[in-house]
Amino acid sequence: MAIKLVEGFSKSIFICWGLASFFVLSCSHLDKKGSQTLTTEPTKFEQAYPNRIIDAHSHFSLDSSTELSQPTLEMQTMYRESNVQAAVVHLPKDKHKRKSLKVERAKSQLKLAVCAAVVPGESSSAVEQGIQRGDYQCMKVYLGYIPKYASDPFYHDFYRLAEKYQLPVVFHTGDTYDKKAKVKFAEPLQIDEIALQYPKVNFVLAHMGNPWIQSAAEVVYKNDNVFVDVSALMLGDVSKANPEALEELAIKPIRWFWLYVENPKKMMFGSDWPLMEVKPYVQAVMKAIPKEHWDDVFFKNAAEVFKLN
Predict the structure, then answer these.
(1) What is the pLDDT of residues 196-214, one digit of tens each?
(2) What's the pLDDT tens digit per position in 7-27?
(3) CB-count exposure of residue 33 (10 Å: 0-12, 13-18, 19+)
(4) Are 61 and 286 in contact (CB under 8 A)?
(5) Which of 47, 117, 239, 269 is deepest in the core (most CB within 10 A)?
(6) Is the model more confident about 82 or about 2?
(7) Cis omega (within 30 of 0) on the bond before 71?
(8) Helix, strand and coil in the chain, % to nearest 5
(9) pLDDT at 101 over 90
(10) What is the pLDDT of residue 30?
(11) Do 269 and 298 touch, CB atoms closer than 8 A?
(12) Pair 119, 142: CB distance under 8 Å
């Protein structure tokens, strides 16, 4: 898959560390509860690779009508080869794509947390019924793709549901994969207001707010109930990307964000599969995070936020 690169400029000044400013070129796109359990002991894998991983930002592959039964064999195989034990899957914002979707959680050992799509035409009562059935373990708000700010009255019924059932809410933030989307609605600073209004709800900023990385970092740093995933700072197979581009577009921004927030419990690995090849992106993120915190970023934090223990 081709890598999409969109030029942008980002200048950062550390208050405490005195680190130099750097430039960020912006590119992004952008149960039913059963008997499945996660492996609690790390599994054997290749040297210098996380022992266990949760992909905190994923999508089902819906390219054909034959793939309505999820997770597909392709998804299971890809995650097994990447040492991923669980995934947080965002349902598509387009109703026709999820209307006949059947999530068969018992098909594999892959543990799933499925996020309901919070979009116009979807009622809070329907989402609540899905929560009660065990269909949904989180919610996804498609800021930018949907031309509404996070504070729009439409969303508040869903925030109250999240509070009632103690479910996390994920916001798309930053650049969009759709050229027709309005990115002004996806700026991450607005989540500060929502986090203050709903202090009992955990919120997740997808994509680190890229290219508004500094704003996203401040919101995560300031608010105890706001977390971040590092998904899709580039697209495709990053092992085939220009090494300089990979360093500037993904590794340095993740490292800067990590240092600014100063809290190893706030960041989660996410890929945005199938837009990203998972294992090469894991290897890129490894370079940005101190090894002693790999298990936090690649597993523990998502397990706690999305209740995947």
Answers:
(1) 999 999 999 999 999 999 9
(2) 333 333 333 333 333 333 333
(3) exposed
(4) no
(5) 269
(6) 82
(7) yes
(8) 35, 15, 45
(9) no
(10) 37
(11) yes
(12) yes
pLDDT over 50 at 287, yes or no: yes
Rg of the chain (C-alpha set): 18
One-letter amino acid at 178 equals D
CB of 231 closer than 8 Å to CB of 87: no
The model's pTM is 0.84
Mean pLDDT of 40-61: 78
Give the whole-angstrom CA distance, residue 257 versus residue 216: 9
Angle at 252 (CA atoms; ends 251, 256), nearest 5 degrees: 120
- CA distance linking residue 207 with residue 27, whole number of Å: 10
Q: Per-residue b/e over 224-247, b at no fewer than 16 CB within 10 Å?
A: ebbbbbbbbbbbbbbeebeeeebb
According to DSSP, the residues that pair with 86 across neighbouring strands are: 54, 111
